[in-house]
Every structure is written in structure tokens, then in C-alpha cells.
Write a structure and sequence with these properties.
The chain is α+β, with helices and mostly antiparallel strands. It has 6 helices and 21 strands. The two termini are 17 Å apart.
Amino acid sequence: MSDDSPFDLDKPAAYAAWRERKLARYPTDRADLVVEVRDPRRLSRGEREAIAGLCRRANMAVYAGRTGSVADRAIPAALAAEFGLRRLDRNPGADDDGITALRVVEEQWRNRYIPYSDRPIHWHTDGYYNEAGRQIHGLLLHCVQRAAEGGENALLDHEIAYIRLRDQDPAFIAALMAPDAMTIPANFVNGTRLRPARSGPVFSVAPDGHLHMRYTARRHSIEWRDDPVTRAAVRALEALLASDDPCIHRLRLEPGWGLISNNVLHDRSGFRDQGERTRLLYRARYYDRVDALVRDVSGSSVSVEM
């Protein structure tokens, strides 16, 4: 952690300055998160800069593309590459190209997992169960078709969650930064261990100085560090996520729309498919963060306020 990191609990002045900038620039209207684009495979300079600006301010942007219900897997791949997302997390649910088709699956092993069902998904960051060297920093969702009913997402920048908890009690942050704050038990199927137990912090600071978060609101298959401060911190986080905080945005992705983010906190309501209205989203997870620098015509980066 750098000497002037706002995430250092011993540097309150650095935190106060960063907090003021963050909250002053944060979009509190859901519509301000949406950037209209003609074709997400070929962004104009203005479209790219608008998306990059939102990712700097809110760690996410929603693009409203005009491709509609075209099932083109090149769309998320091309958009991800445009923002420096290249190191794909090829998880077991992904297809050969590393992209996962999220739809209701009645059979196969996938039907044991909520993302392949129409059931609600509680608040989480993607890949919270991954090992330390394979943390998910970038997440892209592209909507091909929405459900007949439901399927809304709630979104919260993890930096805002950090601010809310630190403002309540800095001890909450210290507890959630402990290396054993949250443990995901081993995953066994039919007596075979698919994944070992993994412990780690909720909040951590990456080598590049950015804040990272791993979290799930699941009540089972998770073990929290057993001490009063950690339990209080978890309750405070749960209360925040259940609140009407103006920084929590709720929306439903339409066909041709998508989310590009630094793996912000998100959930998904339950949904119902009907006839041709069968929900399909493409998901791509990356070990990279979104490259949100504005570039000049030569491709060189231009200094911007963070």
C-alpha cells in the first residue's frame, strides 16, 4: 500500500480528500450510468470516453447498444478488448471461448448453480471463491434477450460500500481486511472435491493501489471470522445492501445492452421466461481492471483526474 493510499486506516487525511472527490463525482441518478452506443463492437471515440469516464467515477458503466437480440459472442469480446480486458477467467461454466452463456439450464451439472436458474441471486462480487492469484477485477455482461418478467440487477460500487462502512466505524474496515475474514468452504460433488476451502479478506488493496472486494451475501457455504467486530461489520454491510441508499442503482438490461465494470457489487432478481422471451446473457470475467484512461489520436494516454 502506498504512503498516500486513501485505504490506509492510518492516513485519515488521504481518505478524507479521496472520499470528497469520489462522492462529488458519483452518479446518483440511474440514467447517468447509461451510455448510448451505436455498435459496442466498434465504439466511437466519444462513446469510449463516456464509458471510460463512468468507470473512473463509478467503477462501472451500462452501454445501451443497438444490436438488439443478436447472439454474437464477438460483442462482449470486442468491447472487453477495447478496455484492456484480456485475461479471461476460464471457469468451469465458460464455453470454449471463455465466455459463459447465462440461461436457465434444466439438466447437466449447471442446474445445481443459481446463475443457471431463474431464482434470485443475492448480492455478491464475481469469483469470490477464487484463489488469491485468480481474483476477478473486471466483469462484463451483455444481454441478448431479457426474460418476460423480472431479471433486474442492483448495482453498487464497492468503493461506495467501503466509504459507508468506514464512516460508520473504521474498525469494520480493519476487520474486513483481515486475511481470514471470509472463508468459502470446499466444494464437494458426489464425494469429489472440486475446489478446496479458500479464505481471504473482503476488502484488499491491489498492487496498483486500487480497492478490490470479494463478497457474497449467501447464508450457507460461507464462514465468517468469529469475532464481535467482524460480525458487526457483516451486519452493517448487509444493512447497507438492503437499504435505499441513493448510490444503489437498479435496472434491467435490455437486448443489446451490457454492463462493463471493475467487478462491482451486484445482485439479480428472480425472473420468468415465456415463449421466445428466454433470458440469455453473455458473461465474461477478467483478471484485469477496466482500462479507463482517455487516449489521444496517437494512442497515448492523457492525464485525467481520478
